[in-house]
Amino acid sequence: MGRRTMSTQFPTDRVIQDFPKAYKSNCTPYIQEDFSVEVRNALNLTNPNRDAYICKVIFVGDISVGKTTIVKRFCLDNFEQAYKATIGVDFEIETIRILDQPHNLQIWDTAGQERFKCISQAYYRNSQVIAIVFDMTKPKTLEDATCWLESALAVNSIEKPFLFLVGCKCDLVSQKEFEIMERSGMEMAKGMQAEYWSVSAKTGFNIHELFNRIAGLSFESSVKKSIIESAISLGGIRPSQISRQIYGVGKFRRADGKLDSSCRC
Ligand SMILES: Nc1nc2c(ncn2[C@@H]2O[C@H](COP(=O)(O)OP(=O)(O)OP(=O)(O)O)[C@@H](O)[C@H]2O)c(=O)[nH]1
Ligand SMILES: [Mg+2]
Predict the structure, then answer these.
(1) Considering its fold, how many domains does the chain have in total?
(2) In which region does residue 229 sit, left (phi positive, over 0), alpha (psi from -120 to 50) or beta (all else)?
(3) For the whole prediction, is pTM greater than 0.95?
(4) pLDDT reported for residue 123
């Protein structure tokens, strides 16, 4: 079945007007709650026919945790029950309209198999978003998440990529197991300075919400970067001055609503 479209023929599920929320407000280092005034003002002055902003997103994690299935659920809205290992990397591109501007998500789905690691690592570079996936039915895949993060960061040239820790296959666990795994996932995410999500590629639970959140955060960051670049190209302004003014300082919000100042990002 085709996706719903607006009169412009753009699918309504690929349109974002409000800043997408985190899955749990106490488990994200990205505490911004709306598009910033600077970004909204800059977009008002932007040529409506400008090229799309581009964001590279990589999915990493152990073998068979659900990386490909998550990407396919979002891009093609289907679910493949049979397991087919990814060889090296696969690539999808999805355009999302955010505040009436096109934003392209380049989604790189990498192989979890050890023997393809050398090939897939070559594609980790310049990733604005790193999503580490684990299988909620297999605690070992959560333990391995830190290794995936390290290898993704080791070759990445982006200074502070957005980090997501994603627990997949939540449809396969009981309510009690879900709570235990989610708690462990959230603790791991806090240690990594990542945002936590539980999803199911089978039922579609939280799949669009996750990608919208990735798109919203990366769009805000790309527009801010272009504001800085154009200010620098106009001359007379030091990069550090501008970045202090328009980049907020990220902190974890604790369960009691207070900010945790021990976080570094
Ligand atoms: N029930 C259920 N099964 C899932 C879910 N996500 C993935 N699967 C199944 O898990 C298996 C592995 O999924 P893939 O997406 O191929 O795993 P992968 O992480 O891409 O694996 P590699 O490419 O080898 O790294 C497949 O049989 C999927 O159908 C989910 O949310 N729920
Ligand atoms: Mg795969």
Answers:
(1) 1
(2) alpha
(3) no
(4) 86
